[in-house]
């Protein structure tokens, strides 16, 4: 009996040691660069310009994490991933995190052994059609050809929705948004389906966006958020609380422009903890006390990032909607910094 217990203890100790071996924070610090898995190209969310400089809503989250961990938002290597390659890139260690309009689902969280660090965009699946097709509802697409990215929740939602409504369709499989845009514009499919934010971003890149209509139906819930590998809890905490820092900063009125003044003058205890004026929150996750301050300074708070990349004054033209702060009727809510 004692021998069995002893061997069991060794097995448990071995498992614990194995689980503790993952230290993404140490790897990132040693490398001096954050490897961030992003979209292959989705204007407003993640896309390189003619000089190879990446910009977008998801890119700014990568920058915030790099600023928090490395002290410099430019210390990021952007790794383009498709719907089919993104999770393999993360699980294999090719990237340290994904910031790539990926939906948080049960199977991805459990079967793929990923940890989602929160939701940075509440979305839903929609459909876009050429205006001259004369279609005003998804239910008029019976028998249509539909462009769809493989390896996505979109693919499964499409099948479920059309089956539930006794509709038929012919899928035109694509690997990336760029290919989807090309196929759709070439007339290879009657409609393009993906997250509504993605449709808005795709349409904004057209020469004639006014000639393309996003249909009114929202056929799914798509909580999009950053993901990390399962088993490295500290790194997951860093990514999660960096996102929370951006959300909380907007709620408390902390911006990239007034942050230095608030460090000196704010009497809000939560703001003081957030900005490292009081408490030792940084030490709890292996960082210094100004990690969140640097994350916010990188590209601004959540509202600044949203407005600059995908908001109503950009070609993407998205309203805040569900992505408004909870105090403004939305779902955006950061857990307390205390």
UniProtKB/TrEMBL annotation:
Residues 33-262 form the Solute-binding protein family 3/N-terminal domain. One of its GO terms (biological process) is amino acid transport. Gene3D superfamilies: Periplasmic binding protein-like II (3.40.190.10). Keywords: Signal, Transport. InterPro entries: Bact_solute-bind_prot3, SBP_3_CS, Solute-binding_3/MltF_N. Residues 1-22 form the signal peptide. It holds the Pfam family SBP_bac_3. The keyword Membrane does not apply. Belongs to the bacterial solute-binding protein 3 family. This is Amino acid ABC transporter substrate-binding protein. The lineage of its organism: Bacteria, Pseudomonadati, Pseudomonadota, Alphaproteobacteria, Rhodobacterales.
